[in-house]
Amino acid sequence: MPTNAPAAAHALKDVAASDSTLRRFLHGLPGVDAVGLEARAASLGTRSIKTTAKAYAIDLAISMVDLTTLEGADTPGKVRALGAKAVRPDPTDRTTPSTAAVCVYPDMVATAKEAVAGSSVKVASVATAFPAGRAALSVKLADVRDAVAAGADEIDMVIDRGAFLAGNYMKVYDEITAVKEACGTTARLKVIFETGELSTYDNIRRASWLGMLAGADFIKTSTGKVAVNATPANTLLMLEAVRDFRAQTGIQVGVKPAGGIRTSKDAVKFLVLVNETAGEDWLDNHWFRFGASSLLNDLLMQRQKLATGRYSGPDYVTVD
Amino acid sequence: MASAFEYAPAPESRSIVDIAPSYGLFIDGEFTDAADGKVFKTVSPSSEEVLSEIAQAGEADVDRAVKAARKAFEKWSALPGSERAKYLFRIARIIQERSRELAVLETLDNGKPIKETRDADLPLVAAHFFYYAGWADKLDHAGYGANPRPLGVAGQVIPWNFPLLMLAWKIAPALATGNTVVLKPAETTPLSALFFADICRQAGLPKGVVNILPGYGDAGAALVAHPDVNKVAFTGSTAVGKQIARTVAGTRKKVTLELGGKGANIVFDDAPIDQAVEGIVNGIFFNQGQVCCAGSRLLVQESIQDELLDSLKRRLSTLRLGDPLDKNTDIGAINSEEQLSRITSLVERGEAEGAERWSPACDLPESGYWFAPTLFTNVTQAHTVARDEIFGPVLSVLTFRTPDEAVAKANNTPYGLSAGIWTEKGSRILAVANKLRAGVVWSNTFNKFDPTSPFGGYKESGFGREGGRHGLEAYLDV
User: Fold this and answer.
1) Which pLDDT belongs to residue A7?
2) To which H or E segment does residue A139 belong?
3) I need a surface site. Which of A23, A317, B182, B434 has the fewest CB within 10 A?
4) pTM of the full predicted structure?
C-alpha cells in the first residue's frame, strides 16, 4: 500500500462532486484486455490444490458460503430448514464449519434470524427490489429499512443497470449512498452489479469503483437470475479492483461471486484467484463469499471423501 | 489461518520417460557411435544429475551424415508432395501421442517448467508439423511459381532454449519442400532431438532423410562449411551467426539466421495495466528469459511508471521458482552453468553502472543453476543492460514521454526481432507498429506463436523468415 493512502482517499472524495467528475474518473480507469484477463484467470485455474491444501480450501469455502433461497415459493419452513443447515452443514461431522450466512428475501429475515440464533451465521437479505431493481428509490429504501429492522446483518442490493448503461453514473452512486445510509451502522452492504447485463469488462471495472466510492462493503457479481453470472474472469477483475482501491484509500472491500459456482473444484479455483490477486488478507469470510446454494453439498461430499477415502453420494448430505 | 493456503507440490512423474544410459548419432536411419569414439554428458540443469552419455559428432561424422542425406535426397525429393505429407502428418500425430513423454524429457534436459513444455512447446511442435504437412502438396500454389524445386541437403544448427520447437521449425518446412536434413542440436539439450530420431523411425521415414548429430560448435561449424550442404539454417547467438555468414559468403548456399534480440515492450499510459503486467511477466520470464524474442527492455511512459512498477513488483512476488517438473512452477532452472555465469556477470555490470537492481524474496534451490527474477530500474539507453542481450530472467526498465520517443528508443538497438505495444488506442497500435523495426510486433499480448505466422529479425537479429508461407521460401529454389 502506498504511504500516501490518506491523501489519496481525500483526493477520491472529489470524484463524486459532479456527474462529469465521476464520469471522467470512471472512464479514466485502466482498460481491460478481455483476452489477457481470461487467459490469466484460466492459468490460475491450473494450480494444484491437493491433500492438506484441498482440505483447507474446502473448509474455507464452506465457511464462505452465503446459503441462499430466493424463490417466490419460500416459506418459513423452508427458511428454517436452510438456517439449520447453515449452522450445521453436516450433522454427521461436527467439525464442519458453519456457512457465512443465509440469504433470504426481506420478509423472511425475522424467520431466518430465529433459525440461526446463537450461531455465527449471519442473515443477509436481498433488498432494493431484487433482482430487477426496477422500483422507485423510496420503495427500495423501504425494502432495505424493513430488512434491517427485522435484524438483517447484511443487505445485498442490486444497482440500476439501466441507469448505469445509460451513463447515468451519478444516479447509481446516489442510490448506493442512500441505501448505505439506510443500512445504518449495523448492516454491511453488498452491491450487486449483475455483470452479465453490464456485458463488458470495462463496465465491470467502472461499476466496481463506482460501488466502492459510494461506500459498498462488498462488491458482488450477480443475482444468479440471469444467463451469465460469476465467472473466474469477472471475479478476477473485481479482485483487482478491491486490491487497487485499498492501495489508494486504505479501505478494504469484500468480493462475492454469485451464481453458477456449483462444484468444489470451481470454488477452489476462485480461492486461488483471491490468494494470488487480492492476497491472503481477503481469504476469510469477512472479505470473500460465495453466493451459491448447490455448491455447499458438493463441498460437503468432497469433505466426506477426504475424511473417509470414498465418495458417499447425494443421500449422505441434506437436501435443503 | 490464511497462510495455511499452501499449494500442494504436483511433480509430473518421470516414469513416463525412459532415458537410456547412452545414445549414438543418428545417421542414415541408424544410431551409431562417433567416428572418433568421443562422448559427452548431458545434465539436468535443475539438479545437475547426469541424464545420459551422448556420442559427440566430429567432422567425419558430419561428412557421413551429409552423404546419407544427399543419397536420400534423390528419392525423397522425387516423391509426390502428397506422399511427403503423409510422413509429416504421421510424425505430427506421433508427437501428439508422445507429447507428455516429450514434455517431461524436455523439462529434464532443459530445466524449463513443465507447464511451458506441456502447454506451449509440445502443442506448437505438433502444430508446425501439421501445418507444413499441409503445404507439402500445395507448393505450386505458394506463390513461388509452378513446381518450385527443393534445394538439396539442409544443414541445421539449433539452440538449447527450445530444443524440440526449434527442431520442428527447421525440419518440418525442410521435409515438406523435399529437402533432406542434417541437424545439430545444442550440446546441453540433445535428448529430445534423439527421441525425435526415434519418432522418425516409428513413422517409417526413409533412411537418411533426417540425420541428427549431437555435438559442440566444431560439429556445427563443419556442417555449415560442408561443401555438399545446400542450405544452412541457424538459430542462436549473433556472434556465431556472424561466423556462419562469413563461412558461407561466396558459396552458393542459401542461409537463414535467427539470432539474438533485445525486444522493447512499450507500455503507454492508457494501457490495460493488469494485462500489461501479465504480458511483461510473460515477455521476460517465459523460459527464464532465455528467449531470443524476449521483451527484455520495458519502455514505460513516465506518467505511469510508479503505478506500473508497483504492480509489476507485486506480481513478481507471486512467481514460483523451483522444481521444473512441478506444474505450479513458473520459473525453472537456467540451462547451464556457463549461461548462469554469463547472466550473473551482466547483472553485476548493470549494478556497477548504476542501474537499480530488484528481486522479490525468493529461495533458490541448493543444487542446479538458478537465477531469481530480476528488475533493473533507472536504466538508460547508455547502460549495458539496455543494450546487450542477457538471455536470462532480467528486465531493464526505461521510460519515455511521447510515442515518438518510445519508437526512437525501441529502435535504438543493434537488434530487431520483437516488440510489444500496450495501449487501448487502436490507431496508436497501428501507427507505432508501422515504425518499429522488429520482425514481430505484438499488441496487448506477448510471446504468442503460431505456425502460420512468419518469424524472423531485422539487423543483427538475422535474416530470413521461419513459419508461415514465408518459411517455405528458405527451402525452395526461387
Assistant:
1) 53
2) helix A137-149
3) B434
4) 0.93
